[in-house]
Design goal:
heterodimer; A: about 300 residues; mainly alpha; 2 strands; about 75% helix; B: about 75% helix
């Protein structure tokens, strides 16, 4: 007969683990709550629409202006630029690795990609600043290479591992029967890949793209170091830009707790949180449509 | 018209070239970093504090700071992450609570690191009054790492065959005994792999610690969790943008040390993982 003590012990452990598991919910709630508590004052002061669509960000002038539009545009340009480079390249690489490359190449490439994913963003920023920017400056004959273009390129390199590894999982998840049926009908391997495998993996590839974009839009240090940080609405991709993330990182050190500038930066945090929240939601909708790709691979 | 074979050759050939073009420049830039940074790695550089506004001396306090932050991250993230995974896999059925947990984890994974920085500053530095400190930084990095650790640990636990659990339960073991003595030992290598990957990433993060823990310069090593610290990623950012007159070699040296610390952690994890994957295929 079991002692009652050990029953309590088992129960206790179960509740303890449940409590631990609940902390994730608590943390998400706290992030939400804190961003709003600290940032809501800025929205009150300027008004939500003026905060989002205002074109002047002058936090220390008298009176201060808090218009986030240049940064929102900066973030969008840099993110889309990175996506335009990283998504086709990443899917292409994934197709090569999943469909054609020999096993040994594939294993090595996977390991290399994983290592690249682990390189800190500040190192990417440093290399972008000291190595890539001078090369781009000479190649394109620009006055300064610290522009949206360079930032997009660096972000693309950073997003590539995410896009490649999730795309590859998506391609792997396409049942072998599909390929065999197509080949048996006389299609070449290329035709099979383009007309059967890629369409079958479509939602997984879309999810890979969204996660790549999500990674790019939240990236801070690399962008802060290579995007030029000018608070202007850019006219071309060769203008310097400042992103939402870069501005938070750059200005947080100068603020006074509870001050308007401080609140405005938390306001930017709310905008950023909302953008990534929406991207996540879309990705999740895609993921729930396809159960074949595991979400965990994206982390 | 192109023959089918030719089209296939051209298509796959182009993809091979693309892969090559993406990997080679990135790998060679990192090779360049090692090439330039290597001569900077003297004994003095690794064991001395910086001098003369960071333009001379070494990076010892930054190395120690990053290691201290990493240990702190482990202390925060590992118990919470593994505990959550155990609850999700071993103790709960799918219900409203677990659904809520999963939604929270997925969303936490998507929160940008700079937002974690804001949160850490608002929550730990100011609201809890920890100040700019090792503790605030470790807590911030810990919750940033949590989603990775939970989801890799969950996968690791799911990979343990149910027959192990049934066998243990059938012998009269309780659920917790089964988890602790049977499931966890089997899943441990995979759990650790994920944990190392996640913590390696945290060790290289800059944005979350620049408001919560790190300072540009302090010659002191931390005595307590309430001390502020230098940290390698923030140090690299500072000397390559904010601090004037730092020699390129010192900057490359600092970048190389950071890359080596993070890279070593990743390499261990990737080697374990690749080995396990190949073993499973056989």
């Amino acid at each position: 007969m079991k002692t009652r003590l050990s029953d309590y012990y088992e129960k206790g452990i179960k509740y303890l683990l449940g409590l631990i598991a609940g902390t994730s919910i608590l943390i998400l709630f706290l992030i939400f709550f804190l961003l709003f508590r600290e940032g809501i004052g800025a929205f009150h002061y300027v008004g939500v629409l003026d905060f989002i669509f205002g074109t002047k960000w002058l936090p220390v002038s008298e009176p201060p202006h808090f218009g986030a539009l240049p940064m929102i545009i900066g973030s969008i340009i840099v993110t889309l630029g990175a996506g335009i480079i990283a998504i086709p390249a990443g899917i292409g690489i994934a197709v090569y690795l999943a469909e054609v490359a020999p096993r040994s190449v594939r294993e090595i490439a996977k390991a290399v990609i994983e290592l690249l994913a682990g390189i800190p963003s500040v190192v990417y920023g440093f290399l972008g600043l000291t190595v890539l920017a001078p090369i781009i400056k000479d190649l394109l004959d620009l006055p300064s290479a610290l522009t949206a273009f360079t930032a997009a390129l660096v972000l693309a390199i950073m997003a590539l591992p995410t896009v490649v590894s999730i795309s590859e999982d998506a391609l792997d998840a396409v049942p072998r029967e599909y390929r065999e049926a197509s080949l048996a009908l006389g299609a070449t391997k290329w035709e099979t890949t383009v007309k059967i495998v890629l369409p079958s993996a479509r939602s997984g590839l879309m999810a890979a793209s969204m996660l790549g974009l999500g990674r790019a839009v939240g990236e801070t240090m690399a962008v802060l170091m290579v995007a030029g940080n000018a608070m202007i609405i850019p006219h071309s991709i060769f203008d310097p830009v400042r992103t939402i993330t870069a501005n938070i990182a750059a200005e947080m050190g100068e603020t006074v707790q509870g001050g308007l500038h401080y609140q405005a930066l938390f306001g930017l945090g709310i905008i950023l949180f909302t953008i990534t929240f929406v991207i996540n939601l879309i990705t999740d909708l895609i993921f729930t449509k396809t159960s074949s790709v595991k979400r965990g691979a994206s982390l | 018209m192109m023959s089918k074979r030719l089209k296939e050759k051209a298509g796959f050939g182009a993809l091979a070239v693309l892969t090559f073009m993406a990997v080679v420049p990135v790998v060679s830039i990192i090779g360049y970093l090692i090439w330039i940074g290597w001569p900077a790695l003297t004994w003095e550089f690794l064991t001395q504090p910086p001098r003369k506004f960071l333009t001379e001396g070494g990076i010892f306090p930054a190395i120690i700071g990053t290691m201290a932050l990493t240990v702190g991250t482990i202390l925060v993230a590992l118990p919470l992450g593994i505990g959550t995974a155990i609850y999700l896999v071993e103790y709960s059925r799918e219900n409203f609570f677990t659904k809520l947990i999963r939604i929270a984890i997925i969303n936490l994974a998507g929160v940008p690191s700079v937002v974690y920085g804001l949160f850490g500053m608002g929550m730990f530095v100011l609201t809890l009054g920890l100040g700019r400190s090792l503790a605030a930084g470790a807590l911030t990095l810990g919750i940033l790492t949590l989603p990775i650790i939970i989801s890799t640990a969950e996968e690791a636990l799911l990979a343990v065959p149910d027959s192990y659990r049934y066998a243990s339960l059938a012998l009269g073991a309780t659920r917790w005994q089964t988890v602790r003595r049977v499931v966890l030992p089997v899943a441990l290598p995979s759990i650790l792999t994920g944990a190392i990957l996640g913590i390696g990433r945290a060790a290289g993060e800059t944005a979350p610690i620049m408001f919560t823990a790190a300072v540009v310069y302090t010659p002191r090593l931390p005595d307590s969790v309430y001390d502020q610290v230098m940290a390698l990623p923030y140090h690299l950012y500072a000397i390559s943008t904010e601090v004037p007159n730092v020699s390129q070699q010192m900057a490359f040296g600092a970048a190389l040390v950071l890359l080596a610390i993070v890279g070593a952690m990743n390499l261990v994890a990737v080697v374990i993982r690749t080995k396990m994957r190949l073993k499973r295929m056989r």
